[in-house]
Design goal:
This protein has eight helices and two strands; from the N terminus they run H-E-H-H-H-E-H-H-H-H. Helix content is about 65%, strand content about 5%. The longest helix has 19 residues. A two-stranded antiparallel ribbon has the order 1-2. It is mainly alpha-helical.
């Protein structure tokens, strides 16, 4: 998926912002996010993308989290260049997002309702 198609996906999803409004959520700290992802099998992904540094401790809308994960997955695919590993990471995207948002069930519910967490 190209960065342009990621941007189009994000813009399309923004049409339904009213379900969660403009509410921003505070994500887990960088250290907590790194530990959580490392302990659930995403350690190589964290090492190569630094997604913990990008998201940790920040206030973001759930759609921004989706965009950051999509961008990190794209970057990871460009770094790794292993089709099998890249496919596994794309399949693990919903789990990755749920781990990042685990203390925000309303955000997970919102993304599921928008069919963005599948």
């Amino acid at each position: 998926m190209t960065k342009l198609s990621l941007a189009i996906l994000l813009l399309g999803a923004c049409s339904g912002l009213s379900a969660i409004g403009n509410t921003l959520i505070r994500l887990a700290s960088q250290q907590e996010l790194r530990n959580r992802l490392n302990n659930t099998g995403f350690d190589h992904f964290v090492e190569k993308t630094s997604i913990d540094q990008e998201l940790g401790g920040r206030e973001q809308h759930p759609l921004e989290v989706i965009n950051a994960v999509n961008s990190a997955l794209y970057d990871y695919s460009q770094i790794i260049k292993n089709p099998v590993l890249n496919m596994l990471m794309r399949e693990g995207k919903p789990r990755l997002i749920k781990i990042i948002l685990q203390e925000h069930p309303q955000a997970i519910k919102y993304l599921k309702e928008k069919n963005l967490l599948q």
